[in-house]
Specification:
Keywords: Disulfide bond, Signal. With about 500 residues, this protein is α+β, with helices and mostly antiparallel strands. Residues about 1-10 and about 25-35 have low confidence and may be disordered. The longest helix has about 35 residues, at about 5-40. The strands form five sheets. Strands 8, 9, 10, 13, 14, 15, 16, 17, 18 and 19 form a ten-stranded mixed β-sheet that branches. It has a three-stranded antiparallel β-sheet with strand order 5-6-7, with no helix packed on it. A two-stranded antiparallel sheet has the order 1-2. Helices cover about 30% and strands about 20% of the residues. The protein folds into three domains: about 35-105, no CATH class; about 110-150, no CATH class; about 180-460, Cathepsin B, Chain A (Alpha-Beta Complex), CATH 3.90.70. It has helices at about 5-40, 50-55, 90-95, 155-165, 185-190, 200, 220-225, 240-255, 265-275, 285-295, 310, 320-325, 355-365, 465-495, and strands at about 65, 70, 110-115, 115-120, 125, 130-135, 145-150, 170, 205, 220, 330, 335-340, 350, 365-375, 380-385, 400-415, 420-430, 440-445, 455-460.
Length: about 500
């Protein structure tokens, strides 16, 4: 029977027996009981006491079903009246329900990234930029968006992919130690050589007459085995000016002394003590570095080890100038005393000629070269580097460049995909063996790529005969001691 039919039958039965007033009372009770039951929400939540059923603060799980949605029994609903369950004020607060307002409960903004969801205000790191989850400006959606900074980064995945999939003649890589670094910081901490000033740039070049046929391939490591020192790592300090200077000086001292001197010289001393008109980890001038090498000299790396790559500062000079002149130096690294100080003659500039540079390396050893580092050089892995200009349509800050100095230790020929010969210089960088081809790179030869042939310097080491003899005697004594120890261990094993 329909709801209306049942009500009519009830009235026909009750009217003769109870009268009109009684009938209206019965109707009121009949209609009120469901409303009273339906108004119980917070009190019907699981829990024995009201403090289990009513929640303090904001708790979006403190709800009870009502119609096709939910109402709230948390204290936060008291700020937005329409969220609260009907019995919240009486049951949870013991108060009379206040009048209704229309302020909505704030939308819980969420942002999405690679299938994951993040709350409003979350900050993510994307390469060298940061992205913050922000709400919809109109406030009409729970889905927010990411507001990101737009700095130029040292490594750009889209450029790495382009170089590796197209025919540029070289391959690139995503280096962990460079990821997340801004391009301006890469220039600040990974380069460090000041562009040669006008007076230095006008320095007269030493002319070399090349009448012979030069080889197609040359590597100083093969010509002078054990005399070319390994790749170093300047870390987060713009000290290429110091590393390339001590690197070339170390190699040439070893070559010119025929192996009698084979110590790696200290870039840290040059960085910390050569302070006049220099800027430490923020860059330096090569002419000032060679001036210090000529006038004062430096100790070996083991005596004064490198530390600025971690601290990002040049640090205080730990050797006194007077001690350098008297050859009575206490090593900052191990506290021992040493008399070994290594110096050089004044540097000489080599003409910006491919063949003359080759002849100088062939005869005298590695040379120091200054070149302009473009934004894509940081991602070099192997092959013959040439500038790609992939950022040509980007703002200027995405194409920021800086000067860097390295050792050129040889040259060679490579083949392009079309089978054509590609000439290159073989260079030692100062970013550690994890970068490039075990720390080395090849760059286009004969075209002054990135100004690599514009300012090339050579030098002669000051070789002291007594010092060479002393070093040779020391090495012979060490070899003799190692031989004795080896024989002793063998005899002990046999016994």
């Amino acid at each position: 029977m329909a709801r209306g039919g049942r009500m009519a039958s009830l009235l026909q039965f009750c009217l003769p027996h109870f009268g009109v007033k009684s009938i209206w009372a019965l109707l009121f009770l009949t209609l009120s009981i469901p409303l009273l039951v339906e108004s119980r929400h917070c009190s019907r939540r699981p829990g024995q006491k009201y403090w289990d059923q009513c929640c303090e603060g904001r708790d979006d799980e403190c709800t009870y079903p009502i119609a096709d949605t939910v109402c709230y029994c948390d204290a936060f609903c008291n700020r937005t009246i329409h969220d609260c369950c009907p019995d919240f004020w009486e049951y949870c607060r013991g108060e009379t329900r206040p009048p209704e307002y229309t302020t909505p409960r704030p939308i819980q903004v969420i942002c999405q990234d690679n299938g994951d969801y993040y709350k409003y205000g979350t900050v993510l790191k994307r390469n060298c930029n940061t992205c913050t989850c922000v709400s919809d400006p109109m406030g009409s959606s729970k889905y927010g968006s990411w507001s990101c900074t737009n700095f130029a980064c040292v490594l750009r995945p889209e450029h790495i992919n382009t170089v590796n999939t197209q025919n540029y003649g070289w391959q690139s890589s995503n280096y962990t130690f460079l990821w997340g670094l801004k391009l301006k910081d890469g220039k600040k901490y990974r380069l460090g050589t000041m562009e040669p000033g006008p007076s230095v740039a006008r320095m007269t070049s030493l002319r070399v007459h090349v009448n012979e046929i030069l080889p197609d391939f040359f590597d100083a490591r093969s010509r002078w085995p054990g005399m070319i020192h390994p790749v170093q790592d300047q870390g987060n300090c713009g000290a290429s000016w110091a590393f390339s200077t001590t690197g070339v000086a170390s190699d040439r001292l070893t070559i010119h002394s025929h192996g009698g001197i084979n110590d790696m010289l200290s870039p840290q001393q040059l960085l910390s003590c050569n302070s006049k008109n220099q800027f430490g980890c923020e860059g330096g001038h090569l002419d000032r570095a060679w001036w210090y090498m000529r006038k004062t000299g430096v100790v070996e790396e083991n005596c004064y080890p490198y530390s600025s790559g971690q601290s990002k500062i040049k640090g205080n000079c730990m050797v006194r100038r007077s001690a350098m002149h008297t050859r009575n130096i206490r090593c900052p690294g191990n506290g021992r005393m040493t008399k070994s100080v290594y110096a050089s003659t004044p540097p000489y500039r080599i003409a910006p000629s491919e063949r003359e540079i080759m002849k100088e390396i062939l005869d005298n050893g590695p040379v120091q070269a200054t070149f302009e580092v473009k934004e894509d050089f940081y991602m070099y892995k192997d092959g013959v580097y040439r500038y790609t200009n992939l950022a040509r349509n980007d703002p200027p800050e995405f194409r920021d460049t800086g000067y860097h100095s390295v050792k050129i230790i040889g040259w060679g020929l490579d083949l392009s995909k079309a089978g054509e010969p590609v000439k290159y210089w073989l260079c030692a960088n100062s970013w550690g063996p994890e970068w490039g081809d075990d720390g080395y790179f090849k760059i286009l030869r004969g075209t002054n790529e990135c100004k690599i042939e514009s300012f090339v310097v050579g030098v002669w080491g000051k070789v002291n005969g007594k010092q060479v003899l002393k070093n040779r005697r020391t090495k012979r004594r060490l070899r003799h001691l190692r031989h004795i120890r080896k024989r002793y261990r063998l005899l002990r094993h046999l016994i």
